[in-house]
Design brief:
The protein is mostly helical and 267 residues long. It is 69% helix and 0% strand. It folds into two domains: 1-98, no CATH class; 100-267, no CATH class. The protein is built from nine helices and no strands. Helix 5 (128-148) packs antiparallel against helix 6. The termini are far apart. Bound molecules: zinc ion (ZN). Zinc ion (ZN) binds next to loops.
């Protein structure tokens, strides 16, 4: 019975980190704020600083019914969504990996992917602050896992993934730009895929991320154009699709790959 407290604890940690990721998502792309200043959260509408009891993840949004206590401005529904998604992913990671080093590895990975996906979706940029954080945490945990399990191939595969990930996206962008005569892929995407290769390894994980993200990007892009939410000219950020595919491969890569091989008749 005591075991129920571990997942509850992990969910609450996830909500808290999700709340911090909201600060990153709001502040990193804006030049007039930084993660550290101002120290208190504030309402983007009336600039009133937010009391701690109005800043409780998920719950405060519900109690305030999605409105600022002072100016009644609508609070973006993205805040509770980011908090919930972070907490839910932490929980799934716990059930998938237990309390091992792989748990920490996966937690680092999704905690970098979430702000990258939301910032790219809103601003069409992937800030270096986040790619560098992902690179640092990734190198650290991959080295520790490789050392702990005395498995040098684990480290090798991930370094290859890092180089291959960046190179493949850079090449796709290079060829795409030449054909379409406009910028097809940003340097942010190149760095993001390099980091994904570092966390997941080259084969088959990186290949799966590229395939899944291209497929989901094409489907949703077509839907957005068909429903008139985007026109052919407007850019569609690729980062959220890469990040989403990476999470799927992180959690369910093995069974998906086996399923794919069977479908393709190679097994
Ligand atoms: Zn306000």
């Amino acid at each position: 019975m005591g075991d129920i407290w571990i997942p509850i604890f992990i969910f609450i940690i996830g909500l808290t980190i999700g709340s911090f990721l909201n600060v990153c998502i709001y502040r990193i792309p804006r030049s007039d704020t930084s993660i550290y200043s101002p120290r208190r959260s504030f309402c983007p509408e009336c600039s009133q600083s937010i009391k701690f009891y109005d800043n409780i993840p998920l719950l405060s949004y519900l109690f305030l019914r999605g409105k600022c206590r002072y100016c009644q401005a609508k609070i973006s529904v993205l805040y509770p969504i980011v908090e919930f998604v972070t907490a839910a992913l932490y929980l799934v990671i716990y059930y998938q990996f237990g309390t091992t080093l792989y748990f920490l590895h996966a937690i680092f990975f999704v905690s970098v992917l979430i702000p990258i996906a939301f910032i790219d979706a809103q601003h069409y940029i992937i800030p270096n602050a986040l790619s560098l954080t992902g690179l640092g945490l990734g190198l650290g945990i991959v080295c520790i896992i490789s050392y702990q399990s005395k498995d040098i191939d684990y480290l090798k595969m991930r370094l290859i993934g890092f180089v291959a990930g960046g190179l493949v996206i850079w090449l796709i962008g290079f060829i795409g730009s030449a054909i379409m005569r406009k910028k097809a892929m940003g340097m942010g995407d190149v760095k993001l895929m390099a980091i994904i290769g570092l966390y997941l390894g080259a084969l088959p994980e990186l290949l799966m991320v590229i395939g899944l993200s291209a497929f989901s990007g094409a489907v949703i892009g077509t839907l957005l154009i068909a429903t008139g939410k985007k026109d052919r000219k407007s850019p569609i950020p690729y980062g959220p699709f890469i990040a989403g595919a990476a999470v799927v491969v992180l959690l369910w890569g093995d069974p998906l790959w086996k399923e794919y091989l069977q479908l393709a008749g190679w097994n």
